[in-house]
Design a protein that fits this description.
The chain is of the alpha/beta class. It has helices spanning about 40-50, 65-70, 70-75, 140-145, 165-170, 175-180, 185, 230-240, 245-260, 275-280, 290-295, and strands at about 5, 10-15, 30-40, 55-60, 85, 95-100, 105-110, 130-135, 150-155, 170-175, 195, 205, 210-215. The chain is about 30% helix and about 25% strand. The protein has a nine-stranded mixed beta sheet with strand order 5-4-1-8-9-10-11-12-13, sandwiched between helices. The longest helix is centred in the last third of the chain and has 15 residues, at about 245-260.
């Protein structure tokens, strides 16, 4: 079993579901409210665990009631939380999410303790892979990149300027099409793989601007797109660690992202390996097993 360390955010998501999203300055009424565990780091750690990897989450939460609520599903699924530090000075991160009847969303995040995750909190040497995002300080992501001795994946979301170490060290950078447009100049000359997601249209994998693989997700009934990107990231990394080809890995990642849209909430919607295999019907493209390093070449 591969061991993945996820260095990232933990939030409690407060989700308002309504008929349509408001325009600037507009109030939309008639919404229903639900609370779910979330945060890109926590989502990706749980997604990787459900897909069969051992996972450790390196994070900060507050010393408040939100912390336990935010980590309930992580703990229940066996994610290692021994390095999820309690911060006495900041609350647990909170995300305010509006979702319309088509599953589209708007998200505002109050980072709280996530902003206090420091380089000194990071200890990821020796793990098979490390996944980071940009809902924590850049210097903490850099520390994780420097310590990582395995596959290093950066989900550059939300988009943030890539410092020198974060242009050189990642084996894999994952962005959506908006983030890709914002970071295009930073990615010029990048030697690793770049996965660009385009929602229902699927995703493409590039190296040095050359297309390596392209995949589209299976057709599903969309309920809520929150967490789909995190499911994609985790599935892509887990698949590569399993030694799958680039095409197979991308196909599985797109399917995992699609599955995450079929249920409400970020973490409750994340699929298991069995669900993913069932959706794909056991027929995968390019299922020739290779080593993790070969799958990145």
């Amino acid at each position: 079993m591969s061991h993945i360390g996820v260095v990232g955010s933990v939030n409690l998501d407060v989700v308002a579901t309504c008929a349509r999203l408001p325009r600037p300055g507009e109030t939309v009424t008639g919404a229903t409210i639900a609370r779910h565990p979330g945060g890109k780091g926590a989502n990706q750690a749980l997604a990787a665990r459900r897909l069969g990897a051992a996972t450790s989450l390196i994070a900060r939460v507050g010393k408040d009631a939100y912390a336990e609520e935010a980590m309930t599903l992580l703990r229940a699924s066996g994610v290692d939380l021994s390095r999820a530090w309690r911060d006495p000075s900041e609350p647990t991160g909170l995300a305010l999410i509006a979702v319309d009847e088509n599953g589209e969303n708007q998200i505002v995040v109050a980072p709280g303790a996530n902003a206090r995750l420091r380089p000194a909190d990071v200890n990821v040497a020796g793990l098979d892979a490390v996944i980071c995002q940009f809902e924590i300080p850049t210097e903490t992501v850099e520390a994780a990149a420097e310590q990582c001795t395995g596959l290093f994946c950066l989900n550059a979301a939300p988009a943030r300027h890539l410092s020198g170490p974060l242009r050189r060290r990642p084996d894999l950078i994952v962005v959506n099409e908006v983030e890709h447009a914002e970071l295009e100049s930073d990615l010029t000359g990048f030697e690793g793989l770049v996965a660009v997601t385009t929602g229902a249209s699927g995703a493409a994998l590039f190296r040095r601007g050359r297309l390596v693989a392209r995949a589209t997700p299976p057709r599903v009934t969309v309920v809520d797109t929150v967490g789909a990107g995190d499911s994609f990231v985790a599935a892509l990394v887990v698949s590569m660690l399993e030694g799958r080809s680039a095409q197979d890995s991308l196909t599985r990642a797109c399917a995992a992202g699609a599955l995450a849209t079929t249920r409400p909430g970020a973490q409750p919607s994340l699929p298991t390996a069995d669900e993913l295999d069932h959706l794909l019907g056991g027929t995968l493209v390019g299922d020739d097993r290779v080593s993790p390093t070969e799958s990145l070449s």
